[in-house]
Amino acid sequence: MTKSTLTKTLFKIVSLLLVVASCIENPKPVLNLATANTIEIDGDDSKDSVILKAAHVIPSKNQLNALKDEFIAFVHFGPNTFTKLEWGNGMENPSVFNLENLDTDQWCSAMKDAGMKKVIITAKHHDGFVLWQSRYTEHGVMSSPFKEGKGDVLKELSVSCKKYGIKLGVYLSPADLYQIEHKDGLYGNLSEYTTRTIPRPVQGRPFENNTTFEFEVDDYNEYFLNQLFELLTEYGPIDEVWFDGAHPKRKGGQQYKYRDWKKLITALAPNAVVFGKEGTRWCGNEAGATRDTEWNVIPYTEDPRTMNLFADITGEDVAGVDKLMEGKYLHYQPAETNTSIREGWFYRNDDEQKVRNTDDVFDIYERSVGGNSIFLLNIPPNREGRFSDEDVNVLKETGIRIKETYGIDLLENADGPVELLDEDEDTFLALDNDKLMLEFTLPKGVKINRFAIQEDIKRHGERVSYHALDAWVDGMWKELVVSTNIGYKRILRFPEVTTNKLRLRILDFRAIPVLQKVTAHYYKSRPPILDMHRSELGMVDIAPKMSDFKWKPHGENASGNLTKGMKIVYTTNGEAPNESSTVFSKPFAFANGTVKAAAIMNGELGSVTELSFGMLKDNWKVLNTGSSKNDHNAEKLFDEDIETYWQSNESGVNNHFVALDLGEETEITAFKYTPPTTISTGMIEKGIMYISKDGIKWQEKETFEFGNLINDPTPRFFEFKNSYSTRYVKFKVVEIAGSNSSAAIAELDFYK
Q1: d(Cα 551, Cα 554) in Å, to the nearest integer?
Q2: pLDDT by residue (tens digit) across 666-681?
């Protein structure tokens, strides 16, 4: 009998004994199998046995601690901060890192205010430039003007982390463009694999840690291990090592010996979780998008404990039952939902690089932490060595919302299962098949719109696959929300309700559910700013305004997510909306007038949004144009989409015009010009409007002029001296702002 077969046989015997022993004490056992971080699937396992095994996969101590950190920070900092690039080329002169000041205390203070528990810094990004005083390269801070080459960003950050109680993690890019491009670079230099001692001694730079290792490696893996040794021994406890799979350029068939890296990490940083390998995984996007169902028990076709390469897991269904059946191993591997607070990973500027608003960050927090994952938010320092004020304000406001909402547990004095209401992480409640409903009674009615549930994943893994929450309202149970899995934490969000009794129903599960904690909360929703839009068919829609953040959009409407139970009211007669105004329920047909709308949330009326709509454009046609760029034809100036635009070619003034057929003869009294906001050129400063009865003979009727469009690219309204009856109009551009040579129109509206 082989060792592998013997191990499988013993596992089955132990599992069977556990089942028998459990059945003697309890006809519905909580543990049917032995739990483990990784469980192998046998060829003869049925669908039911695979599901049962999945329910017995549990996190390692480091993975559980990573989940408990919940909200953590990423810091991208380096030469790209000064070159304004996202990816460097590896050949930047270290002098570009012209850092005069560094305030890591300010970083950690802002993180603390946000409620973050850990920070991961790009100790070395893909360009190969290092932010610490490494013994093994001159391509880094030691060759920069920063503190005359004596500066050490890692050292200062580690001191600040200790001061503010923030855990420290390091991002050490496996890719290294400097080592690829440099003539003596070690990456892919085809060196032999030989036995090497780590760390390699460097004269005059001894280590306080005298531990050494021997590995069979080539030059680049030795270099990588030497630098990893420095980071793990000289900067205090390291709680996460972050690897990604980015390869901007390859050379020489270079391979990474991750299993050797792992041995070093395990020995020198035993509390560190490893991202990008078997520790934690990428959520599959950089936008802050989350899956509705995020299981952390992941199927693998190879044993993840011995794998060297880990592919990104990006599908929508990561670990549903059908996916589990495709695997040969089941492994616990939490997801990190990573994104940036700015448009880009590195700081570029404060003028054009937009910053997420507080609604967006708080919404991602609730969706990620409350969706069985870890929220990793990047905050890139600026060229002053600080977080910019706007970023700091968003972090502070987010922290206030988290504390105000989740710092108070409304079930603190409730009656219910004590195991779920206490503060002891070692208590839990196993549910019987015939007792899958739990009730919680409060001393008096309270306002609630958040409910958090945690399974006892430490001992019993992830089990619940479907559940619902009810509230006692007007003498009967009212279903508030239904959801899928729970795992480490599920935050349920629902319209505000006042109640003194809640009921949790477990509707489906992989094995006997075992819960660890439940809490109830109230988020003080604010009436959101609204946005109005009219379709090409003339239907007006009103909704909470989406964040003006275009980098890697996640598709979520944060304001809408945070305002469950909101009511929108509107008017079309010019009056301001109030509680008695028409309630918006679905898009409505409207033309040539002003719509005013406001949101009502918990009895509070929000700010009024108003928008004037011109004639319907469903019958408009382009008669002709002076010129149009390929992707920006004239139809785009009346498609009711301000993200698209018509743009003329760079040419003489006579070619910057567009003539339109309005479909029928009509009386017009004014027009509105909406400039594009996605480009800074093409703003129309001066122009002439012509009309025609036949589209052939034209009469000049109005000249117009707009100012300050480059600095303020907002819609401009122009009222005619007289009204004009016409079917055809021509819009000719005479002067373009900023002396540019191409005109652009995002949307053109005419009013009766």
Answers
A1: 9
A2: 999 999 999 998 887 8
